[in-house]
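Quick start: what a row looks like.
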Amino acid sequence: MNDRRMMWFNFVRGLCAILISLFVGMVFIFLCFLFNGATKGNAGSSIVATFGAMRYMLIRPLFKANGAFNSMNMLQVLAAMIPTIFTGLATCVMFSANQFNLAGEGSVMVGGFVAALCGIYWAIPAGIHPVVCVLVAAVVCGLIMLIPALLKVKLGASEMVTSLMLNYVMQYVVLHFLNYQFADRTKGSTQTAAVRETANIAEIIPNGSKLTWGFVVALIFVVLTALFMYRTRWGYTIRMIGINQSFAKYSGMKVGSVIILSQVIGGVLSGMGGGIEVLGRYQTFLWKELPGYGWTGITLAILADNNPAFIPFAAFFIAYLDKGCQLMATYCDVPVEMIDVIQAAIFLFFAARQFMSKFRQKVVVSNTKADLAKQEIPAEGKAI
């Protein structure tokens, strides 16, 4: 009963955070119309335009103007979930061990670059070619994650600082080799040559939506990660270290090894996400900057409360909002960066421990009273 009540509390708290975040976004949209565009200075018209923009953001990704279900938009939303599911899972594992490693952003880029090179220069039979490319990308990113992990364990260096700086090291190393070694000069932009057809990850439905079989792989890894975290000794150790590292240490757990393991797993998952994204959506590597999937993964982990099973739902929510903001920017002259404002507000309210603390206190008191009532056994009119 207690777990059920706390689950409902967390659900209500998350729903309130999302609704407040949407309201914050709505306020900024209203200000955009009030100070810019055709409704400039007209508060009434700005309010009407704001509700119209919100309709594009919240409804139009799912339904067309005539009310019909928009299957293409929905498939694109699902396709956009693929890399963020992987980075969300990676962040869940690392944050569960209380390791605030932020190198998932750079790992996605390195993973995509390595997978693209393997897809271009390795002649491997179809079927196993994309598997090999993604696995190589995952291994490379896992090895890179050893840097902040070993610095944390051996030297006590903050993994947050080292991983944050490592992002830029990975980015500029990739850009160096992209610009001077592997760029296809026949293209109009800085990008590699196209990967071999044997390395392409096929679409589930060949209609141009870019929803590839990588989506199925992502869901499989959601299940595997959830089982690892909640049904294995290693997952239990990771969570115990995240709750109380000192207790875990004096209980005989190998804290240093588990800290390294959690960050390496994070690198492997992020690298897989980057590799699958490049081989499925682009078939060439053309990222000249960090794609943002790592930061989105942090938002997903916060929304999911570090529970891998909830990552697909959080990824769908963010991808849906992203698609809605794109439509809103196209048809309503609202900046597409509005999704960043909403994500920042969500991050703020979920990270704020005192948000709805009084409501939480009432739930705890109610649970305690219920437990005490269960312990009272009637015996001749007296409680034992």
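That is the whole record. Residues 235 and 335 are 42 Å apart (CA to CA). The radius of gyration is 24 Å.
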